[in-house]
Design brief:
This protein is an alpha+beta fold. The chain has helices spanning 20-37, 43-52, 72-79, and strands at residues 5-9, 13-17, 54-56, 68-70.
């Protein structure tokens, strides 16, 4: 999680960093996005939505709970599985099978 993320460094520099502290911003951002669309979600529901709607990554299997990379788009779609909006659907690894 959080591998090779471009981040700010001391002295006004930028560099790639790795670790859970780098991944936290992505996960908390997705949680905030989900809550903006459905404020009644509780922490357990948020966690479940984020973990269940990831892009599978073989390199993460057995290392993290989701065995995949977070996917904000799929998590938002999960809130309304039959959207009547103009959001274009995209193919995911699971939908190509």
């Amino acid at each position: 999680p959080g591998e090779g993320i471009l981040s700010t460094l001391p002295g006004g520099r930028y560099g790639k960093m790795t670790g859970t502290s780098q991944a936290t911003a992505f996960v908390s951002g997705i949680a905030a996005l989900l809550l903006s669309k459905q404020p009644s979600l509780n922490p357990v529901q948020l966690k479940e939505l984020i973990i269940r709607h990831t892009v599978p990554a073989i390199s993460l299997r057995g290392k993290i709970a989701s065995a995949g990379k977070v996917d904000a788009y799929q998590a938002i779609l999960a809130l309304n599985p039959n959207p009547k909006s103009s959001l274009p659907l995209r193919k995911t690894a699971s939908s190509k099978k």
